[in-house]
Amino acid sequence: MERRFIPEKTYVGKQEILGRMARKASELDLTLDIGHVQLLSEKNRSLDYLEQCPERIRHVHAHDNPEGRYKEEDFKISLGEETKDFFFLLSDLKKVLDEDLYLPIGEGIIDFLSIFQALRKIGYQKTVTVEVPHKHLKSSVQKLREIVESIID
C-alpha cells in the first residue's frame, strides 16, 4: 500500500483534545479511523470517540493493527502548562507509522464487533472505507459483513 504525503508540520492530537475541539467547532466533522486509534495505545480508542462525539462521526475507516510497542509518553511534546495537553509532531513518529500495518480485518487485535455495536447504537448508517491491501479486500469486507449481520439479527 502506498503511503500518502503527510506534511512535516502535521500534528496528531490526543483524543481528549480532539474531543474538545469537536465540541467547540460545530462545523467540524470527524472520520473515525479504527486502525489509527489503535496506534500509541494499549487499547483501541474508537469507543471513546463514539461516546464523546457520536454526532460528529461522518465516515469510518477500517483496517486492523497489532498491539503497538510505543505509547503516547514516548513522544510527548508539552504545549502549555497542562501536561495532558500535548500533540505529537508526526515527523517524530516515523517508527510508530511503521507499526501502522493496514492488516486485514481479523488479523490484528482490534475488537471490531464492539466498535460496530457502538456504531449501530449511535445510529451510524454511512459508509465504511476498508483500508487493506487489495488482495485482502474481499475477505475483510466479508468479515465486516458478518459482524454487521450478527448485530442486526
How would you summarize this macromolecular structure in one to three sentences?
This protein is of the alpha/beta class and 153 residues long. The protein contains five helices and six strands, in the order E-H-E-H-E-E-E-H-H-E-H.
Polypeptide structure, described:
- The protein is α/β, with parallel strands linked by helices and 153 residues long.
- The protein is built from five helices and six strands.
- Strand 2, helix 2 and strand 3 (57-62) form a beta-alpha-beta unit.
Unreliable spans are: 1-13, 77-87
Q: How far is it from the N-terminal to the C-terminal residue, by CA?
A: 35 Å
Helical segment count: 5
- Structural class by secondary-structure content: alpha/beta
Mean pLDDT: 76
Shape: globular
Q: What's the arrangement of strands in the largest beta sheet?
A: 1-5-4
The percentage helix is 25-40%
Q: Give the percentage of residues in beta strands.
A: 5-15%
- The total beta strand count reads 6
Order of helices and strands: EHEHEEEHHEH
Largest sheet: 3 strands, antiparallel
Radius of gyration computed on alpha carbons: 16 Å
